[in-house]
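Journal club side-thread
Mid-discussion, someone asked how the predicted structure for our own chain would compare to the paper's figures. Pasting it here so we can look after the session.
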Amino acid sequence: MNSERTLELLKKAKEGDQEAKNELVTLNLGLVWSIVKRFANRGYELEDLFQIGSIGLLKAIDKFDFAYNVKFSTYAVPMILGEIKRFLRDNAPVKMARSMRDLTVKIQNAKEKLTQELSREPTIEELAEEVGVTKEELVIGLEASQPLVSLNDVVFQDDGAPIYYIDQINDDDHLQSQWLDKIALKEALSRLDKLERQIIILRYFKEKTQTEIANILGITQVQVSRLEKKILTKIKNLLIS
């Protein structure tokens, strides 16, 4: 759906047009599902989380401010995430499957051991070999060990009042735009396949060279270079779509 059609539907929805609102919801259910899937294996049925995320989508439609000058999907993502994470925070603690919990413990122990032996942080390939799992299973284990972050969590607190993540979104237009852009980028990354996401994370978040990435993944530097160009084009298209 193009941005002009989205804006047209948003204007009608804000004027009380229920059909326009229903169409917006239908067209953005895929966005809700893409976010909900991030919370798989967290102790809740995805269908239940989908319902919670849909509430966030409805709030995004009701609260969307045309002055932000951002795509609706960019604005909706933090609203959907916030609704789901508030639900997870306010309900019973999320239980991690025992097998996954055991894997995260093994990964942590292996990481500490290899760091001492190698005098550096081990690569994903080295960690996977030490633990006895595939690189894909290792990445899943690493992601599962990351704590949930709520938009209502404290970012910083000194002598004064605490600053929450949600404050960072609402402070001013410039700061809000930065946060929303980052969220949009994360959304684009979530739509890459495992290899594509791994290359981008290693290249731009871990600051690895193409040669280092090639060694980690067991492919050539030329292949990494070609894949990187292809992936960056794909991300650009996802961000403007």
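Post-session note: Residues 128 and 135 are 6 Å apart (CA to CA).
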